[in-house]
Write a structure and sequence with these properties.
- This protein is of the alpha+beta class.
- Among the domains are: 6-28 and 81-167, Ku70, Chain: A, Domain 2, CATH 2.40.290.10; 183-199 and 208-234 and 241-267, no CATH class.
- The chain is 22% helix and 26% strand.
- The protein has helices at residues 77-83, 120-133, 186-198, 211-225, 245-255, and strands spanning 6-12, 15-23, 63-68, 71-75, 90-98, 107-115, 135-143, 146-155, 158-164.
- Strands 1-2-6-9-8-7-5 form a 7-stranded mixed barrel. Strands 3-4 form a two-stranded antiparallel sheet.
- Strand 7 and strand 8 (146-155) form a beta hairpin.
- Helix 3 (186-198) packs parallel to helix 5.
- The longest helix has 15 residues, at 211-225.
- The radius of gyration is 26 Å and the shape is extended.
Length: 275
Protein backbone atom coordinates (compact mmCIF):
# COMPACT_ATOMS: atom_id res chain seq x y z
CA UNK A 1 0.00 0.00 0.00
CA UNK A 2 1.32 3.52 -0.80
CA UNK A 3 2.61 5.72 1.99
CA UNK A 4 0.03 7.74 3.90
CA UNK A 5 -0.42 11.35 2.83
CA UNK A 6 -1.78 12.20 6.30
CA UNK A 7 -2.74 10.22 9.37
CA UNK A 8 -5.07 11.53 12.06
CA UNK A 9 -8.78 11.55 12.77
CA UNK A 10 -12.02 12.97 11.45
CA UNK A 11 -14.22 14.32 14.21
CA UNK A 12 -17.79 15.59 14.32
CA UNK A 13 -19.14 16.58 17.68
CA UNK A 14 -17.48 14.23 20.20
CA UNK A 15 -17.12 11.38 17.68
CA UNK A 16 -13.57 10.65 16.44
CA UNK A 17 -12.72 8.40 13.49
CA UNK A 18 -9.03 7.51 13.05
CA UNK A 19 -8.17 7.49 9.33
CA UNK A 20 -5.29 7.75 6.89
CA UNK A 21 -5.43 9.65 3.58
CA UNK A 22 -4.49 8.08 0.26
CA UNK A 23 -4.31 9.79 -3.13
CA UNK A 24 -7.58 9.49 -5.04
CA UNK A 25 -6.10 10.55 -8.39
CA UNK A 26 -2.84 9.91 -10.22
CA UNK A 27 -1.12 12.07 -12.80
CA UNK A 28 -0.40 10.40 -16.14
CA UNK A 29 1.85 12.75 -18.07
CA UNK A 30 4.77 12.16 -20.40
CA UNK A 31 7.89 13.47 -18.65
CA UNK A 32 10.51 15.52 -20.48
CA UNK A 33 14.03 16.64 -19.55
CA UNK A 34 15.64 19.95 -20.46
CA UNK A 35 18.66 19.42 -22.73
CA UNK A 36 21.32 21.57 -24.35
CA UNK A 37 20.33 21.87 -28.00
CA UNK A 38 23.68 20.90 -29.57
CA UNK A 39 24.99 18.20 -27.23
CA UNK A 40 21.70 16.89 -25.73
CA UNK A 41 23.39 17.18 -22.36
CA UNK A 42 20.92 17.34 -19.45
CA UNK A 43 20.49 20.78 -17.91
CA UNK A 44 20.53 20.84 -14.10
CA UNK A 45 18.72 23.23 -11.79
CA UNK A 46 21.01 24.65 -9.14
CA UNK A 47 20.37 26.73 -6.03
CA UNK A 48 22.61 29.73 -6.68
CA UNK A 49 23.13 32.69 -4.34
CA UNK A 50 22.42 35.97 -6.16
CA UNK A 51 25.28 37.78 -4.43
CA UNK A 52 28.24 35.43 -5.07
CA UNK A 53 26.82 33.06 -7.74
CA UNK A 54 27.81 30.04 -5.61
CA UNK A 55 25.67 26.90 -5.25
CA UNK A 56 23.98 26.73 -1.83
CA UNK A 57 23.61 23.30 -0.12
CA UNK A 58 20.11 22.32 1.02
CA UNK A 59 21.27 22.36 4.67
CA UNK A 60 22.07 26.07 4.39
CA UNK A 61 18.69 27.08 2.95
CA UNK A 62 15.95 28.60 5.12
CA UNK A 63 12.52 30.08 4.37
CA UNK A 64 12.13 33.83 4.61
CA UNK A 65 9.23 36.25 4.24
CA UNK A 66 10.10 39.47 2.39
CA UNK A 67 8.28 42.26 4.29
CA UNK A 68 10.19 45.05 2.46
CA UNK A 69 12.69 45.22 -0.41
CA UNK A 70 15.52 42.78 0.52
CA UNK A 71 14.27 42.66 4.14
CA UNK A 72 13.33 39.22 5.42
CA UNK A 73 11.91 37.48 8.48
CA UNK A 74 13.20 33.88 8.72
CA UNK A 75 10.83 31.12 9.85
CA UNK A 76 12.00 27.73 11.09
CA UNK A 77 10.36 24.30 10.82
CA UNK A 78 9.28 24.71 14.46
CA UNK A 79 7.45 27.92 13.56
CA UNK A 80 5.47 26.12 10.86
CA UNK A 81 4.69 23.23 13.23
CA UNK A 82 3.40 25.67 15.87
CA UNK A 83 1.19 27.43 13.33
CA UNK A 84 -0.30 24.10 12.25
CA UNK A 85 -0.63 22.62 15.75
CA UNK A 86 -4.40 22.92 16.05
CA UNK A 87 -5.18 20.91 12.92
CA UNK A 88 -2.07 18.79 12.41
CA UNK A 89 -3.58 15.52 13.68
CA UNK A 90 -7.31 16.19 13.71
CA UNK A 91 -9.77 17.23 11.06
CA UNK A 92 -12.80 18.63 12.85
CA UNK A 93 -15.94 19.06 10.78
CA UNK A 94 -17.12 22.55 11.65
CA UNK A 95 -20.28 22.65 9.53
CA UNK A 96 -22.48 20.41 7.44
CA UNK A 97 -23.77 22.31 4.42
CA UNK A 98 -26.09 21.31 1.54
CA UNK A 99 -23.96 19.61 -1.12
CA UNK A 100 -25.75 21.52 -3.89
CA UNK A 101 -24.57 24.84 -2.44
CA UNK A 102 -20.84 24.10 -2.84
CA UNK A 103 -19.48 25.63 -6.04
CA UNK A 104 -17.27 23.19 -7.96
CA UNK A 105 -14.56 25.89 -8.23
CA UNK A 106 -13.81 25.38 -4.54
CA UNK A 107 -12.82 21.71 -4.91
CA UNK A 108 -9.10 21.25 -5.51
CA UNK A 109 -7.60 17.82 -4.72
CA UNK A 110 -9.33 14.60 -3.61
CA UNK A 111 -8.07 11.97 -1.16
CA UNK A 112 -9.61 8.73 0.08
CA UNK A 113 -9.99 8.54 3.86
CA UNK A 114 -9.25 4.93 4.89
CA UNK A 115 -10.47 3.93 8.36
CA UNK A 116 -8.10 2.37 10.87
CA UNK A 117 -8.85 -1.12 12.12
CA UNK A 118 -11.69 -1.00 14.62
CA UNK A 119 -13.11 2.29 13.30
CA UNK A 120 -15.14 0.76 10.46
CA UNK A 121 -18.57 1.06 12.13
CA UNK A 122 -18.23 4.73 13.08
CA UNK A 123 -16.76 5.41 9.62
CA UNK A 124 -19.81 3.82 7.97
CA UNK A 125 -22.13 5.81 10.23
CA UNK A 126 -20.59 9.13 9.10
CA UNK A 127 -20.57 8.02 5.45
CA UNK A 128 -24.23 7.01 5.43
CA UNK A 129 -25.39 10.01 7.47
CA UNK A 130 -23.76 12.47 5.04
CA UNK A 131 -25.18 10.56 2.09
CA UNK A 132 -28.74 10.48 3.44
CA UNK A 133 -28.74 14.16 4.41
CA UNK A 134 -27.16 15.17 1.05
CA UNK A 135 -24.67 17.38 2.85
CA UNK A 136 -20.93 18.03 2.79
CA UNK A 137 -18.82 18.29 5.94
CA UNK A 138 -16.58 21.38 5.95
CA UNK A 139 -13.49 21.92 8.13
CA UNK A 140 -9.79 22.72 8.11
CA UNK A 141 -6.92 20.26 7.87
CA UNK A 142 -3.14 20.70 7.88
CA UNK A 143 -1.12 18.52 5.49
CA UNK A 144 2.66 18.86 5.11
CA UNK A 145 2.75 22.13 7.02
CA UNK A 146 -0.03 23.88 5.13
CA UNK A 147 -3.60 24.40 6.28
CA UNK A 148 -6.39 23.70 3.83
CA UNK A 149 -10.11 24.10 3.79
CA UNK A 150 -11.52 20.63 3.15
CA UNK A 151 -14.78 18.85 2.42
CA UNK A 152 -15.93 15.41 3.56
CA UNK A 153 -18.07 13.65 0.95
CA UNK A 154 -19.25 10.07 0.32
CA UNK A 155 -17.89 8.59 -2.94
CA UNK A 156 -19.23 5.09 -3.46
CA UNK A 157 -18.48 3.22 -0.23
CA UNK A 158 -15.58 5.43 0.78
CA UNK A 159 -15.32 8.83 2.44
CA UNK A 160 -13.48 11.39 0.33
CA UNK A 161 -11.67 14.35 1.83
CA UNK A 162 -11.35 16.95 -0.90
CA UNK A 163 -8.99 19.87 -0.29
CA UNK A 164 -10.71 23.15 -1.12
CA UNK A 165 -9.76 26.67 -2.04
CA UNK A 166 -10.44 29.44 0.45
CA UNK A 167 -12.85 32.18 -0.63
CA UNK A 168 -10.07 34.68 -1.45
CA UNK A 169 -8.51 32.14 -3.86
CA UNK A 170 -11.59 31.95 -6.08
CA UNK A 171 -11.83 34.77 -8.62
CA UNK A 172 -15.20 36.52 -8.50
CA UNK A 173 -16.84 36.31 -11.92
CA UNK A 174 -18.07 39.85 -11.29
CA UNK A 175 -14.54 41.08 -12.06
CA UNK A 176 -15.20 40.34 -15.73
CA UNK A 177 -17.43 42.32 -18.01
CA UNK A 178 -19.49 39.55 -19.60
CA UNK A 179 -21.41 40.90 -22.61
CA UNK A 180 -25.05 39.85 -22.74
CA UNK A 181 -26.57 38.64 -25.98
CA UNK A 182 -30.14 39.02 -27.04
CA UNK A 183 -32.70 36.60 -25.59
CA UNK A 184 -32.75 33.36 -27.63
CA UNK A 185 -35.68 32.92 -29.99
CA UNK A 186 -38.11 30.10 -29.09
CA UNK A 187 -37.24 28.14 -32.25
CA UNK A 188 -33.50 28.31 -31.53
CA UNK A 189 -34.03 27.29 -27.89
CA UNK A 190 -36.21 24.36 -28.95
CA UNK A 191 -33.55 23.12 -31.38
CA UNK A 192 -30.77 23.63 -28.81
CA UNK A 193 -32.68 21.52 -26.26
CA UNK A 194 -33.28 18.84 -28.89
CA UNK A 195 -29.57 18.83 -29.78
CA UNK A 196 -28.60 18.45 -26.10
CA UNK A 197 -31.09 15.58 -25.71
CA UNK A 198 -29.65 13.82 -28.77
CA UNK A 199 -26.13 14.06 -27.30
CA UNK A 200 -27.14 13.09 -23.76
CA UNK A 201 -25.87 9.89 -22.11
CA UNK A 202 -24.71 8.56 -18.75
CA UNK A 203 -21.27 9.77 -17.69
CA UNK A 204 -18.61 7.18 -18.59
CA UNK A 205 -15.11 8.52 -17.79
CA UNK A 206 -13.50 5.61 -19.70
CA UNK A 207 -14.96 7.04 -22.90
CA UNK A 208 -12.72 10.11 -22.85
CA UNK A 209 -9.02 9.69 -23.65
CA UNK A 210 -6.13 12.14 -23.54
CA UNK A 211 -5.64 12.53 -27.30
CA UNK A 212 -2.81 15.03 -26.82
CA UNK A 213 -0.84 12.50 -24.75
CA UNK A 214 -1.57 9.72 -27.27
CA UNK A 215 -0.39 11.89 -30.16
CA UNK A 216 2.80 12.80 -28.27
CA UNK A 217 3.46 9.10 -27.65
CA UNK A 218 2.97 8.37 -31.37
CA UNK A 219 5.49 11.09 -32.26
CA UNK A 220 7.99 9.79 -29.69
CA UNK A 221 7.64 6.20 -30.96
CA UNK A 222 8.07 7.35 -34.55
CA UNK A 223 11.22 9.34 -33.70
CA UNK A 224 12.69 6.35 -31.84
CA UNK A 225 12.11 4.11 -34.88
CA UNK A 226 13.26 6.71 -37.41
CA UNK A 227 10.03 6.97 -39.33
CA UNK A 228 7.68 9.82 -40.13
CA UNK A 229 4.14 10.18 -38.85
CA UNK A 230 1.35 12.34 -40.18
CA UNK A 231 -1.15 13.72 -37.70
CA UNK A 232 -4.30 15.57 -38.70
CA UNK A 233 -3.85 19.25 -37.89
CA UNK A 234 -6.57 20.99 -35.93
CA UNK A 235 -8.79 23.47 -37.71
CA UNK A 236 -9.40 26.86 -36.13
CA UNK A 237 -13.12 26.95 -35.24
CA UNK A 238 -14.98 29.98 -36.50
CA UNK A 239 -17.54 31.79 -34.30
CA UNK A 240 -21.17 31.16 -35.18
CA UNK A 241 -22.90 34.31 -36.41
CA UNK A 242 -26.44 35.00 -35.21
CA UNK A 243 -27.73 34.85 -38.80
CA UNK A 244 -26.26 31.32 -39.17
CA UNK A 245 -27.41 30.02 -35.77
CA UNK A 246 -30.57 28.19 -36.84
CA UNK A 247 -28.81 26.65 -39.82
CA UNK A 248 -25.90 25.48 -37.65
CA UNK A 249 -28.30 23.97 -35.12
CA UNK A 250 -30.14 22.12 -37.89
CA UNK A 251 -26.87 20.77 -39.29
CA UNK A 252 -25.77 19.73 -35.80
CA UNK A 253 -29.01 17.80 -35.28
CA UNK A 254 -28.37 15.99 -38.57
CA UNK A 255 -24.88 14.95 -37.38
CA UNK A 256 -25.94 13.95 -33.86
CA UNK A 257 -25.45 10.27 -33.17
CA UNK A 258 -22.93 9.76 -35.99
CA UNK A 259 -19.54 8.34 -34.93
CA UNK A 260 -16.82 10.95 -34.38
CA UNK A 261 -14.02 11.24 -36.89
CA UNK A 262 -10.73 9.62 -35.97
CA UNK A 263 -8.27 12.21 -34.66
CA UNK A 264 -5.33 10.90 -36.67
CA UNK A 265 -4.81 8.97 -39.90
CA UNK A 266 -4.49 5.22 -39.69
CA UNK A 267 -1.04 3.77 -40.17
CA UNK A 268 -0.23 0.55 -41.94
CA UNK A 269 2.02 -0.58 -39.10
CA UNK A 270 0.34 -2.22 -36.13
CA UNK A 271 -0.07 0.07 -33.10
CA UNK A 272 2.31 -0.20 -30.20
CA UNK A 273 0.98 -2.37 -27.41
CA UNK A 274 0.52 -0.58 -24.15
CA UNK A 275 1.18 -2.08 -20.78
Amino acid sequence: MPANVWKGSISFGLVNIPVSLQNAVREDHIAFRLLEKKTLCQVKYERVCKKNNKTVPWNDIVKGYEYAKDKFVVLTDEDFDKAALATSKAFEIEDFVPAAQVDSRYYSKPYYAIPDEGAESVYTLLHDAIQETETVGIGRITIRGKQHLAAVRPIGDVIEINLMRFADEVVDVGEFAIPKGEKPKPQAMKMARKLIESLSSDFDPQKYKDQYRENLQEIIDARMKGRKIRLVEANEPQPTEVVDLLERLQQSLGRAGKPAKVARKKRSASPRKRA
